[in-house]
Every structure is written in structure tokens, then in C-alpha cells.
Amino acid sequence: MSPPIRVLVTGAAGQIGYSLCLQIAKGDVFGKETPISLVLLDIPQMQSALEGVQYELQDCALPNVNEIVVCTTEKEAFTGVDYAFLVGAMPRKQGMERKDLLSANVKIFKSQGKALADYAK
């Protein structure tokens, strides 16, 4: 068997990230025979929710998942990544206009883009 690919999902504790993690872990994205090291990233305030996602995925006992790593820092999460799904973003809050949301999310994706360049394979 080949070495596992390191796959990162940002915003892994959110609805989209959670659903995507399961699809990746089941082998629907890279194939059922591809071993995976799944890296879950979210903000520190979501640490316990991230661990919940980790436990749920571990309970599935999916044969192609070698490990599931929970991270709350970009450096740790992006280091050595082969593939990254950047789905984590700030949610729109009451009273926010779309331009406010875009401004906040630009900062997030700019930082993640730099982390990809600095730490990913």
C-alpha cells in the first residue's frame, strides 16, 4: 500500500467541512484504496467540536483512514499537506452586509494561501 496522502479540511467543525470530511474519509474523493491522513482545522473556539468530528470519524472505523489530526493553528495544519479544501470562513451574522463578510473572509483566505505556500508540499 502506498504512503497516506495528507488531506486538510479547514472549517472542519462547520456544516460543510463536517460533511466533506466524511466524504473524504469514506474514499469518495480520492478512492477507497487511497490511504489518508485527515487534518481537521478550525478556530480555537471550535476545539471541542473538532474533537467531536474526530471521534465520529474514528467510530466509523474506515479502513483507508490512517490518522485524524485536529489542529487550531495554520502552521501545524498546513505542514506537509498534499491536498487542502479551504471551506472554513466567517459566517454571516445578523446585521452584516455581504461586503463586511467578504472583507473578513479575504483576510482568512489570504492567510491560508500564505500558509499553503509556506508549509504545504
From TrEMBL:
Keywords: NAD, Oxidoreductase
EC class (word): oxidoreductase
Name of the featured protein: Malate dehydrogenase, cytoplasmic
Family the UniProt entry places it in: Belongs to the LDH/MDH superfamily. MDH type 2 family.
InterPro entries named in the record: Lactate/malate_DH_N, Malate_DH_type2, NAD(P)-bd_dom_sf
Domain of life: Eukaryota
GO molecular function, one term: L-malate dehydrogenase (NAD+) activity
PANTHER family xref list: MALATE DEHYDROGENASE
TM spans (from-to): none
Coiled-coil spans in chain: none
Enzyme Commission number, as recorded: 1.1.1.37
GO biological process: one example: malate metabolic process
Domain Lactate/malate dehydrogenase N-terminal: 6-120
